[in-house]
Automatic annotation (TrEMBL):
Segments crossing the lipid bilayer: 50-70, 146-168, 225-248, 260-282, 289-307, 313-334, 355-376, 382-402
Chief site of localization: membrane
Pfam families: MFS_3
Classification via InterPro entries: MFS_trans_sf, TM_effector
Compartments in which it is found: Cell membrane
SUPFAM superfamilies hit by this protein: MFS general substrate transporter
Entry keyword annotation includes Transmembrane helix: yes
Name this protein carries in UniProt: MFS transporter
Keywords: Cell membrane, Membrane, Transmembrane, Transmembrane helix, Transport
Region spans: Disordered: 409-428
Superkingdom assignment: Bacteria
Entry membrane topology: Multi-pass membrane protein
Length: 428
């Protein structure tokens, strides 16, 4: 039985504690991913309203992500995550209650998603910076690949669970489960005891100068062409491609595919592909990881044309599974590069710029996707998304620093028995 438990969970008790709580939270997130768009539609919302609610959850990234990055490099990261989980528990519980009571309206959903997104903006940089504090450097690859596997598995289990919950208890029942998982995650974070961050020992020297710390984080980004070019390519992916998943995909499913159950099949297929991608990322030893990441991003950027292809549901699901492999590969390799080549003391600030230039700009695409599709048609909009996104990903491959970036940073231990530093995959 002991051999069935991954070694990193046995050897790293703090990571094991984090892993269990976050795994349950991931399941809730995947349920919410399906439930929220149909919650908007269930209260009479339009395609534009679906985009508006999704954008409301991401808009706070523009305002608070950089603050969250500085705070996460300055204060205890797991405590920031704990507060964020408590806030998101309250938001999802209230939203579920409004929906189950039949009194929810689109403005309620918009307001609550703004609060949810604000808590998210502080959670994400802290979570990125926390991993090196609960796992030894030579076990990071195992730990982060395991987390990526759970996130991808959630894409399979979550939508299936969400489809059943939406059918039986409505979107409110599905969101009630999400609220519960945030409560469980908070309970595990309350017991977490990570080691002291390097930034905690030097923050006094910075004098608490917020702008100075922010500039230091940007200097880390600006000095690495692979980093800022990768962020630019991801911004295009989040602004142009992902609205096809968050907005136009559910709309097509509602009008042409039979509703939430059919969309759940597509999302679950993507999750299966993501699992395969995580396994590949776990086993592959790549000398130039960012080159492969750029190629994977080009494949991932085909999601819009796949959704709008008019093919059978089975073929769309299969092709989305292929893009799931690519998405997991990209994010594993990207997060690996961050953790390997960016100093831990600046990691949360660098990741906050990452989130700002990707997920933070995503509300622009989410807000425009509905009105543009209503003016020009859903499928022409999806085709146009692909024409923009795929060349942008291929341009990343043309950056010399991207093609040449090694797997190991200065002072990073090389593989020992197949173990190398890496990081987790995540779906924006």
């Amino acid at each position: 039985m002991k051999s069935l438990i991954p070694g990193v969970l046995r050897d790293e008790p703090q990571f094991a504690r984090l892993f269990v709580g976050q795994s349950l939270s991931v399941l809730g997130d995947r349920v919410s991913f399906v439930a929220v768009p149909f919650a908007v539609l269930s209260v009479g919302g339009s395609a534009s309203d679906v985009g508006l609610v999704a954008a409301a959850g991401l808009l706070p990234m523009l305002l608070f992500t950089l603050v969250g990055g500085v705070w996460a490099d300055r204060f205890r990261r797991h405590r920031i995550m704990l507060i964020s989980d408590v806030v998101r528990f309250g938001v999802q519980a209230l939203l579920a209650g409004l929906l189950l009571a039949g009194v929810a309206e689109v403005p309620h959903l918009v307001l609550l998603m703004i609060v949810f997104g604000t808590a998210d903006a502080f959670f994400m940089p802290a979570a990125t910076g926390l991993m090196p504090l609960v796992v030894r450097p030579d076990r990071l690859r195992e730990a982060n690949a395991l987390r990526g596997f759970v996130q991808s598995s959630g894409l399979v289990l979550g939508p299936a669970l969400a489809g059943g919950l939406v059918a039986l208890a409505g979107p409110g029942g599905a969101l009630a489960l999400d609220a519960l998982t945030f409560g469980v995650s908070a309970a595990f974070l309350a017991r977490l005891k990570p080691r002291e961050a390097a930034s905690e020992t030097v923050r006094a020297a910075a004098g608490g100068n917020f702008l100075g710390e922010l500039r230091e984080g940007w200097a880390q980004v600006r000095s690495r062409s692979w980093l800022w070019s990768g962020m630019a390519a991801m911004a295009v992916y989040h602004v142009v491609v992902l609205p096809s998943v968050f907005v136009l995909g559910p709309v097509l499913a509602e009008h042409e595919w039979g509703g939430a159950a059919s969309w759940s099949v597509v999302v679950a297929a993507f999750g299966v592909g993501s699992i395969v991608g995580d396994v590949c990322a776990y086993r592959l030893k790549v000398a130039r990881p960012m080159a492969l990441a750029a190629a994977a991003l080009a494949v991932a950027s085909c999601q819009a044309i796949i959704i709008g292809s008019g093919a059978s549901l089975a073929l769309i699901a299969f092709l989305e599974a292929v893009t799931g492999v690519a998405v997991s590969l990209f994010f594993v390799l990207w997060e690996t590069a961050l953790q390997t080549h960016v100093p831990e003391a600046a990691l949360s600030r660098v990741s906050s710029y990452d989130y700002l230039l990707s997920a933070g700009l995503m509300p622009l695409g989410l807000t425009l996707a509905g009105p543009v599709s209503e003016s020009f048609g859903v499928r022409p909009t999806l085709y146009a998304m692909t024409v923009v996104a795929v060349p942008a990903a291929l341009a990343l491959l043309c950056v010399p620093a991207v093609r040449r970036l090694p797997a190991h940073g200065p002072g990073t231990p090389h593989d020992r028995g197949g173990v190398r530093p890496a990081a987790e995959a995540g779906l924006p």
